[in-house]
Amino acid sequence: MTANIIDGKQLSSKVKEQVKLAVSQLIKKQIYPGLATIIVGDDAASSIYVKNKGKSAKEVGIKSFQHTLPEYIEEKNLLKLINELNLNDSVDGILVQLPLPRHINSDLVLDSIDPSKDVDGFNLLNAGKIYLSREGVIPCTPLGCLIMLRSIKTELRGKNAVIIGRSNIVGKPMAQLLLNEDCTITIVHSKTNNISEIVKEADIIIAAVGIANFVKAEWVKKGAIVIDVGINRIILDGKNKLVGDVNFNEVKEIASYLSPVPGGVGPMTISCLLMNTVFQCARRNNIDLPNNLTDLF
Ligand code: NAP
After folding, report:
1. Do 181 and 100 share a structural domain?
2. φ, ψ for residue 269, nearest 5 deg
């Protein structure tokens, strides 16, 4: 068996097209969605992510406001900027690029974002909504994974899903989303015993560990669906290479569906950020969410 590849690049282009259409519907009503991004410090990878997010926003017609702050900025000044953006009517979404420098309390910063402008779903209120199965903002990466799963038109109900990783930004919300889809979920982490045996039981594997090629072919049940969230930079044959948490070449011979890295979850995360911005903009203006976007769920 060779797995079908879930093409995140192609799927994210489709999502972007729908977002673009929704933005044009809003603009016809004189509503101009805006996304503010904040980056603290000059970490090269984070700067590229934020730049790409701003570029993608512009491509679909969302106004982008980028704020680059020095590494040593005081927490109170970052909070002041967020407060200004909370009060700015041109801004519908506020994204703070993580990780923040150690002297800044990330929880405090994320909780200071107006929940109606939170586009990452990391704010306390929006995080709580997922766990109560209420309508809210779904974190971009797990939402991207869910849309990928939906795209293969598989029945999720009753499936055994194993999520590798329990971070607040990927593992935990992913598990809750799949629970809301009637999957039976197991989360494994660094203290789990016998990971390989647990993963082997999975119909769906979501790998969000941050270790290159962590998931091996012998851990995967024949025909399982595998979504690889990991982004790991390694040096192979003297060259820099981006790889996921799943040993792609091995696992593609076992899985029924597999997402690649690069070109998998990464582009979906950005499209979902744009989608969340449009959702928040529509909600804040008391406009029904555009059908073309809700249909993606
Ligand atoms: P994280 O906060 O570092 O969490 C990693 C998780 O993996 C933790 O729960 C950790 O367990 C677990 N883990 C670490 N070593 C393990 C081991 N040997 N066995 C089992 N579990 C282990 O990372 P994250 O933010 O969730 O990100 C995970 C990966 O996804 C990273 O490669 C990141 O770059 C990538 N990512 C990609 C996107 C995208 O858009 N594609 C978005 C976000 C993240 P403990 O909790 O016990 O420490």
Report:
1. no
2. -60, -45
